[in-house]
Amino acid sequence: MKLIKMAYLVPTLLAAPVFAQPNSNYTYLALGDSIPFGMNATLVLPYSTVAPKPSEFIGYPEALAAANGLLQSNKEVNASCPGETSASFLDTSEPDNGCNFPHLQPPAPQVPPFKTTYGLHTKYTEAQMAFALTQLQTNKHINLVTLQIGANDILLALPALEACGTDTACQTSVLTPVLSVYAGNLGQILAGIRLNGQYEGTLILVTYYSPLTALNSVTQALNTTMTQVATQFALETHTPSILIADGYDAFQLASALSNHDACQAGLLIRLPAGQYTATPCDIHPSPIGRDLLAAVVELAIWTRH
Question: Which pTM does this prediction carry?
């Protein structure tokens, strides 16, 4: 489906989203963290005391599935978990930023673990990698897998990075080991999908946009690591190429008239004013930003040949 059609189809089909448990015929498996999950901070603490339902969160996988006729026919399964790190993706006992452990957001109240408190689009208790492996090994109808993981690795290290101030040597000393561990974890995840899961279909990694201009260089470093690992993995294992959906450049282009400020451009969720609101926008995409990411994934699919 061409991108020009997506803009008209997405709003209509998402008016009444349908979320289903895995079935033997679904074709699209979405993996990752809070961005593909469709996190909306205004639905959880401290902005709301009413527990949200998983169906209230709509990520770009749902937008992509809706535009391609997969959502209403239960052909899409979104296993993403808010706060997931590359380590917790592999092992639930590893630190994360809100998936299996509470999400710390001082001075606001902490948000309890999403998986066990609010629930995910798809129910499972094991690590996301284990769930994905089971699906790939038992459902050979899957022909599209999207993966976006790594931002929470950086967010957990953000206090240390901020403590460095403008000291680039200090920043490098903090960021280098984080990216090294991330690269190793991502390699294991890709091996799980391609080798253990014996999946040779379309696999797309979605790069991260920068929610703040101050985080541009850190976001670029994360994205560079992601693309390098993907390229090297495909070459060394002689497996099908891994496609890259460029979320970073898409947001930069879409916010060009707003000084490349994603919040100002309407690409991020606006936060209500209050004692816990330090910035006007959350780091997660608004419906416009979500649909832009869906279009970027669609573009990667459309141009894969």
Answer: 0.91
